[in-house]
Amino acid sequence: MGEFDLIKEFFTRPTQRAVLGVGDDCALLQPAPGMQLAISTDMLVSGQHFFADVDPFTLGHKALAVNLSDLAACGAKPLAFTLALALPESNATWLSAFSKGMFALADQHSCELIGGDTTRGPLTISITIFGEVPPGQALLRSGACAGDDIYVSGSLGDARLGLEALQGKISLSAHDLVQARQRLEQPTPRIALGLALRGIATSAIDVSDGLLGDLQHVLDSSKAGATLHTHLLQPLMIAANQPLAYILAGGDDYELVFTAPPHLREAVTRAAQSARTPVSRIGCIDASPQLRLLDAHGTLVSGTFASFDHFSSSIAS
Ligand code: ADP
Ligand code: MG
Question: Which pLDDT value is given to residue 235?
Fold first, then answer.
């Protein structure tokens, strides 16, 4: 199958809201009057971000999910995306499953594919996503203030747990493996929560490289520090006896970490309920610039919890 047949068969659907979708030199998108566009790009490389033989349906889901997660972190509503694909071969079975996984998630968020590029090469998937947000309401990394509470959505460390199990480094019960694998391969972007937190959260980021590393980005941007409590983090894992390091620096979680002032605790609870997303308070923002981790007795926990850095490590063994 040639490039253009492939695009027509697997990546062309009638447009829903875009003025013009796949098939011309540019797509045309009409933003709602007065709204700002939120734009983000993520690239997934075979052997680096996923196993080459991973189920293509879940890969299609994940490729879009990591981009939707960036919109969630900014409190932006998804509109559309473009897809740049490098493929080693034109495999109709693979492409069909990949596009089905991608479109299933796209349809859940009314986010449509409006264009892209297709070329031969080592399997690489790059998506650029477009969302909208009212001016001044985007959630940024820079707004955390001393005294703010720190929250995280959902659970942490499960994706890393699943990765280690699939690599044969640890063994899990059948039940835990199913859950951990689901979290690794089909993360849930927290779009509804991001939207509900507009006007409440002072800062937000999505956890892609690990809690400590990503929270540090918020602290750097906000010129602040933080104290986290291990006993508040411990319940955030799906399997018993999961190493604390997976929660702190596992990576691939795609949960939201955000801050809000203590007088808005009830508003945070209501936002979490309206978004049907569990949220936990895990610490607070400090004026002094360190990131501290305390145990249940208030003792400082030390250790190196390096976050996932693609230039120092890889899933490819
Ligand atoms: P051009 O050469 O003008 O850049 P292409 O020949 O690369 O255009 O692509 C033809 C059309 O197909 C364009 O509208 C482009 O956006 C779309 N397209 C190409 N690859 C993809 C893809 N993987 N997913 C969706 N649309 C695609
Ligand atoms: Mg052209």
Answer: 81
